[in-house]
Amino acid sequence: MSNISNNHITYLGTGRRKTSIARVRLVPGSGKLIINGLPGESYLQFSPNYLRISCSPLTILGLNKEYDIYVKTEGGGLTGQADAIRLGIARALCTINPDNRTTLKSEGLLSRDSRVKERKKYGLRKARKAPQYSKR
Q1: Distance CA 109, CA 46 (A)
Q2: How far is CA 129 from CA 81, 122, 123, 124, 126, in A?
Q3: Are 90 and 13 in contact (CB under 8 A)?
Q4: How many CB atoms lie within 10 A of CB 36?
Q5: C-alpha distances out from residue 91 to 6, 22, 86, 106, Å
Q6: What is the pLDDT of residues 78-115, one digit of tens each?
Q7: Where are the annotated coiled coils located (predicted)?
Q8: What's the pTM value of the predicted model, to 2 decimals?
């Protein structure tokens, strides 16, 4: 999906992971990352791992400095949000050029990780952890 605003073409992508949702806008620019109005480095707490994960689709395609990334993300923690941003960027890159799809798909960047925390059951301490068994 693409929108035209202020003479710039914007490419949209939505990513989800655990309970996190990221709405990503790619705008042709210099390669800056803005997450919820903050610079990406400070939002992701200057963690090189989170930054590498978030921008991996651009790195693989060699488009690091081609697009500015604007993200609105909510829910979950930083790990879920970083993975959601990665999926959103990958989906937006597929709308830019359908040829990107084969490269991103072979790297596994277009598949949504559907693992979500399992709910706690009554009588148990966590989802599956039971209290210690006492014979007497």
Answers
A1: 23
A2: 27, 11, 10, 6, 5
A3: yes
A4: 13
A5: 23, 11, 9, 14
A6: 999 999 999 999 999 999 999 999 999 999 999 999 99
A7: none
A8: 0.90
Give CA–CA dist 75/127, Å, rounded: 21
Residue 93 CB neighbours (<10 A): 25
pLDDT (tens place) for every residue of the chain, 136 residues total: 666 655 678 999 999 999 999 999 999 999 999 999 999 999 999 999 999 999 999 999 999 889 999 999 999 999 999 999 999 999 999 999 999 999 999 999 999 999 999 999 999 999 999 999 999 8
135 is written with which tokens? 């014979």
